[in-house]
Write a structure and sequence with these properties.
This protein is mainly alpha-helical. The protein is built from two helices and no strands.
């Protein structure tokens, strides 16, 4: 089975990345697909 992966136009990651995301998220328009991990889920953000 073949898998295809497309790299997003913009990817923000690393230490304090969430603090820098507001402007990036606003630029996506009305819809965005945001992926987080266990740390974000447990922190209640």
């Amino acid at each position: 089975m073949a898998y295809h992966f497309t790299v997003p136009e913009r990817c923000v990651f690393g230490s304090n990345a969430l603090d820098q995301c507001e402007a990036v998220i606003k630029g996506f328009g009305k819809k965005a697909f945001i992926v987080t991990g266990k740390v974000i889920t447990k922190s209640g953000i």
